Amino acid sequence: MAVRATVSRFPMDQDAQESSGLPWGVTVTPFATKDENGQPPAYGSDGHLLPRCENCYAYFNTYCELDQWAWSCALCGTLNGLSSRSIARYSHPQSCAEMMSSFIDLELPIEDSEEEMMQPSPVYVAAVDLSSSEEFLELTKSALQAALEALAPGALFGIATFSHKIGLYDVQGPIPVVKNVFVPPDAEGTLPIELEDVMPLLQFLAPVDTCKDRITAALDTLRPTTSWERTTGAGQGLDGVLMGGRGFGVAMEALFKYLGSEYGNIFALARVFAFISGPPDYGAGQLDTRRYGEQYASKGEDADRALLPEQTPFYKDLAAVAVQAGVCVDIFAVTNEYTDLASLKFLSIESGGLLFLYSNTDDSTLPQDIYRMLSGPYAFGCILRLRTSSEFKPGHSYGHFFPDPQYENVQHIVCCDSYATYAYDFDFASTDGFSRYASEQPVLQIAFQYTVVVPPEELSSSGLVSASGGMHSLKRRLRIRTLQFSAARNIHELYDNVDPEAVLSVLVHKVILASLEQGVREGRMLLHDWLVILTAQYNDAYKLVQFKNGSSVTGQVDVAFSQCPQLQPLPRLVFALLRNPLLRFHEEGVHPDYRIYLQCLFSALEPSSLHRAVYPVLMSYSTPDKQAYPRHSLSRAALITSGSPIFFLDAFTTLIVFYSSTADPVLPFPPPQDCLLRTTINKLKQERSITPKLIFIRGGQDDASAFENYLIEEQDVDGNGFTSVMGFVSFLEDITHSVLEYMK
């Protein structure tokens, strides 16, 4: 569990927090195997015996004062008695994880009746769009082949298809059999028959171990529905226009019902992979994509604001059904037409799934992405709870979860991988702020309860396999991290303890929220104004600018934060974020679906990955085996002055190796497999949650625009795209001007 605070020393009180201009909060990556310093938790058992405070329900931890019969809670100060069992347990402190470390992971018992009831085979269902092209289906087939290789033994797998009808495949007989049920075309229609009556669920879900070849054979039979089938099946649409016949909404609703009937009996978690090649336009959940083509400018409407909200609550409501049924949905959209991901995204993000968007089938990394997603560890049925000491409290929470309807600051996550990150910001509980006494420091406790499926081979190594006879086993665990912070005595101390990447994370969440609620223009203004206020507060704190009689200025505005190294990256990060498609305008050609994809991606990334996605890392090499400089600014000037022949750019989703036009022709291109540069690339690819696209460019011979587009510092922040003397320098001048206006 990695936790990063925007400031590692907290502001002393509300005045200090407001006058600093900094967001105050944390990012949490709960299922990361180590903490932010690379330390693993102390593992233990009997999590249900861990003492809890009777006042605030916090868990006992190493910051609590312990005497023979009682302990004082580090969060609220309450004195709690110890049970005789705990007294005996804590008389041998070296045997208890919670006495050894403030970061612990304890096993919880699963009741016997529950153990018998759960046959915890992991269940996976592929839902494939047949209102598509041959190329789309070929890509989907290779992705599902990769998925089959990644699945653990004992998994169950089903293939469903959707168009103007839903198809269910039975692959357990000698030849694959498909049974179809037609989708009613109207938006209020429901299926005439339950899927369970079309094919019993256990006939549909096939064991991967014994049926892999037959599943492959069934995938080979997938064909796109012909235009003739669609017209007769779907009939005439609005105004006599032919409708496509992609009954996605009905298919999802029916699948959740189908699987949900056996939630807890056959499976503990089901994952549905939805492969879609365009907007749902048939039956319940159909979306009207004509809103994309409308001329908003002529109506005086903000296109960015009009296209960001969902047009129907259908998929948000459906996500709640998925959660109840124990289903996590991953959406793989392979399309360059408007699909309205603004409406569809809830299905994945609220059910703990992922949303992927590929603009074409040619260079899509879909097979690698699905393999990576399934071969990594993940937890499910998770509950995340944040507690604070009494002086402060959690404000907003951000991330892909759904809040508990009953309890505050409790989030449910259906499925969580080791990269998924959430963020919180804090408020003071009263005007008093933090105590100046070292004994009463701010404390934060994060509890994460989760279930993992343990495959048979891991059980046999721990000697537990006899009873389960080759079956998977479920393990419920409780991971707790307790952190103690100190309060900054003054604003200089606060500024010296800033984590710019954590600040960026919280800012990105706030900006996404603002643009969803009030439009992209509002999101941009929020970001710009935030930097102006921070710069003004910093200049004021360091007494760099003085006003006399409200107008004349002494001193120079320092927009580069030259006296505070921790703040120096922030102007560049804000500039880059304003240049990012996340916040660029619709009229600049930013596709609304791509914007939604970026919102979903950025709001789940941990801070250092997000930093690369917003402001890519550019390094240079003198040969493929020797690094020259680890970091350059993203400008042509930096390239020219460095004089290095090879540059490597890491933009998180894309990796580019660029050989300058003046590079010695003797240097091998592309770099050989056994060189340092390749080792660096492979290591980065290995550690990443998605598969980055790798591009090699030879300057002067290949089209270098893919690389040059990332050199944003000479590009205008308003995004007219023309390279000019404007860019980052003029952006700082604009901030200087705004700071002076603000400080008057």
From TrEMBL:
Record-annotated Sec23/Sec24 trunk domain positions: 121-373
Domain of life: Eukaryota
Domain Zinc finger Sec23/Sec24-type: 51-82
Transmembrane intervals: none
Record's keyword terms, sorted: Protein transport, Transport
Keyword Isomerase tagged: no
Domain spans labelled Sec23/Sec24 helical: 499-610
Matching InterPro entries: Sec23/24_helical_dom, Sec23/24_helical_dom_sf, Sec23/24_trunk_dom, SEC23_SEC24_subfamily, vWFA_dom_sf, Znf_Sec23_Sec24, Znf_Sec23_Sec24_sf
Listed Gene3D superfamilies: Sec23/Sec24 helical domain, von Willebrand factor, type A domain, Zn-finger domain of Sec23/24
Family: Belongs to the SEC23/SEC24 family. SEC24 subfamily.
Protein name: Sec23/Sec24 trunk domain-containing protein
Organism per entry: Hevea brasiliensis
Organism taxonomic ancestry: Eukaryota, Viridiplantae, Streptophyta, Embryophyta, Tracheophyta
